[in-house]
């Protein structure tokens, strides 16, 4: 167990946004949510996944909404605690820990926004990156249920849901999220410590903090932040270019669209299109797909290594596009069935980003 | 207290469909739901509203969905009981009675579909007719809360909702209903016997049965069923004509559209348009509004007095259009604010149908 103080939040948010792969929300929003809580309630306790007792009781606490809406409307921390407490009431037992559902500038930090609940945070998540849908988590691969799931919205409404499948949780909660304004707090996937140890991906907060530190150090030393990330996590720089067009809408509770880049430097005369659904889903270079989910496709400013989320990318940005291998759990048949390109409507097979040209 | 047997269902369904004012669902569907339950569990116990003990515990049980979908997909009675039991579990106490939320071919009979729960049915409802939205009930006029509200859908999903306002219950449940296929059972407005006696409109089942009997008798005696309804309930025949056009869609969980009629007989050369949102909302004769919600606008076949719902009306039908006064509670300022024409987006004042030309 270690403590996370206010000073660590910037690195964690920066690194989590890199792991967010275009989604997971804006790091400024996430940092705002967490900073105030640490100032009020003291440093957060972060515990290693392996250290959990088998009978520990935990769940994910997350924001559900379109990232493009969240940058205009800050989620409220009180709803995170409301959702957590509602789920405890439904289950008839208290939680001992909470965990982030995914990496990402907001959702990696949402558990810190619930510090007033007094629970330690588990250094583990259900994605090892960010994904668009709440069923896109490693517990789904093991038959873990998203429900009972509780929701609290900004209007004071609350809901407890039980569904036959995790896909139904996504469908019904997405509809309710759109109807209530795309900015809900949810508590979901209640699980024991034994289940968490079998199901979750360890180390997301520590990894985010380390990635943030690497990028910050590279900036200070005038080295390439993108190279630092690739050297640490594997994968490759897929492209460097200038954004020439962004096509984006907030539709059905998603931030949907694509970004076009024209190459610069070594990539002069070449083109890339990255298509996103909250997160970046596929990268096409000169018309050929060179990276897909579940591998991480990240956009970073070439000079400063600032990760740019799908809702923030703008005409004129000079970006490095990185392809980074996903957690090995996602490259299994079951993992690819859940989060591979076909799950997002792309008629193409997954190829590990290390193996593409 | 009296018993309702299988033989009474046809009259109740017929009369409830007249009171449904274009909505509330198809009487054939409602009768199917109830008949099987009476055959299995015996006759239903129907109790008068005034006879309830103050500490009785009741709620409405209803189908939520677009009537245009319900005629293609029969709601399942097991979900009605599931929703009821889920609400009991949430509240931590059992219900002693259930009540219909509205008149209407399906929803007046949904409580009969829950006979396996073993509860008597209260002869009272929250509308005295049918309305499109779940907040359009007399309890809303008294500050009664729609929630906690439970939902059970055909897929095995379930939800318990608490909302700040009854309008939010409508908004969130409508979204969930559309997402899960427009055919959910809900249990809502938990209330005590004392509250029910103060809030509800008494006698809906008995009134429906009587209206059904009147129409059936008029048919047998070759008298005008429309005249029989008007003689019993007041109001007037607004038009008789042939349907020349129907404009209808199932949109956002509603059956929306309008029906145009050309006059026959005394109404030769004149025109009427009736606009509906599940229920009939306004009737325009020769371009002038002659009836609006909350008064009841009913379409019945001129010869046989068969009430025709908005999802069933077809080109060529010869219909009588009736305007019947609503319950007096809806003609108060609060009642009109909730269910008057402006509440449905029509920029016109309510005028009692007895006073229009």
Overview of the molecule:
2 copies of one chain form a homodimer. The first copy, chain A, folds into 2 domains: 2-204, 3-Layer(aba) Sandwich (CV3147-like fold), CATH 3.40.1610.10; 224-355, CV3147-like, CATH 2.40.390. By secondary structure, chain A is of the alpha+beta class. The first copy, chain A, has helices at 9-19, 27-41, 67-70, 77-91, 110-113, 138-141, 166-180, 193-199, 204-220, 225-233, 333-339; strands spanning 2-4, 44-47, 57-64, 97-99, 121-122, 124-125, 149-152, 158-162, 184-192, 201-202, 236-251, 254-263, 271-277, 279-285, 288-292, 296-301, 318-324. Chain A is globular, with a radius of gyration of 19 Å. Chain A starts with a strand and ends in an 18-residue tail after the last helix. In chain A, the strands form 4 sheets. A 7-stranded antiparallel sheet of chain A has the order 15-14-13-12-11-17-16. In chain A, strands 4-3-9-7-8 form a 5-stranded mixed sheet. In chain A, helix 1 runs antiparallel to helix 2 and helix 9 runs antiparallel to helix 10 (225-233). The model of chain A has no long low-confidence stretch (mean pLDDT 94). The longest helix of chain A is centred in the middle third of the chain and has 17 residues, at 204-220. Chain A binds chain B through residues 155-164, 168, 171-172, 174-176, 178-180, and chain B through 155-164, 168, 171-172, 174-176, 178-180. Strand 8 (158-162) of chain A pairs antiparallel with strand 7 of chain B.
């Amino acid at each position: 167990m270690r403590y996370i103080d206010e000073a660590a939040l910037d690195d964690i948010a920066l690194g989590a946004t890199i792991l967010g792969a275009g989604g997971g929300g804006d790091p400024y929003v996430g940092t705002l949510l967490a900073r105030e809580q640490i100032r009020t309630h003291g440093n957060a306790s972060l515990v290693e996944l392996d250290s959990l007792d088998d009978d520990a009781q935990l769940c994910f606490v997350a924001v559900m909404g379109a990232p493009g809406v969240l940058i205009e409307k800050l989620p409220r921390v009180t709803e995170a605690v409301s959702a957590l407490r509602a789920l405890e009431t439904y289950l008839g037992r208290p939680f001992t820990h909470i965990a982030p559902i995914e990496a990402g500038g907001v959702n990696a930090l949402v558990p810190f926004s619930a510090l007033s609940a007094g629970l330690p945070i588990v250094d583990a998540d259900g994605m090892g990156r960010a994904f668009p849908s709440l069923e896109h988590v490693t517990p789904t691969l093991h038959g873990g249920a998203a429900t009972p799931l509780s929701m609290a919205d900004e209007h004071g409404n609350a809901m407890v849901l039980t569904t036959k499948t995790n896909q139904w949780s996504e469908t019904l909660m997405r509809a309710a999220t759109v109807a209530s304004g795309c900015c809900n707090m949810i508590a979901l996937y209640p699980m024991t410590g034994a289940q968490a140890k079998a199901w979750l991906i360890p180390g997301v907060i520590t990894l985010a903090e380390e990635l943030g530190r690497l990028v910050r150090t590279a900036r200070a030393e005038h080295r390439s932040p993108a190279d630092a990330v690739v050297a640490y996590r594997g994968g490759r720089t897929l492209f460097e270019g200038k954004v020439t067009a962004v096509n984006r809408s907030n539709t059905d509770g998603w931030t949907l669209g694509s970004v076009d880049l024209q190459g610069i430097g070594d990539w002069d005369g070449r083109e890339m299109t990255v298509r996103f659904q909250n997160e970046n889903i596929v990268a096409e270079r000169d018309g050929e797909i060179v990276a897909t989910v579940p591998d991480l496709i990240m956009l970073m400013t070439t000079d400063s290594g600032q990760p740019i989320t799908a809702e923030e990318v703008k005409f004129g940005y000079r970006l490095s596009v990185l392809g980074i291998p996903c957690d090995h759990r996602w490259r299994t048949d079951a993992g690819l069935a859940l989060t591979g390109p076909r799950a997002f409507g792309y008629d193409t097979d997954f190829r590990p980003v290390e193996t593409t040209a």
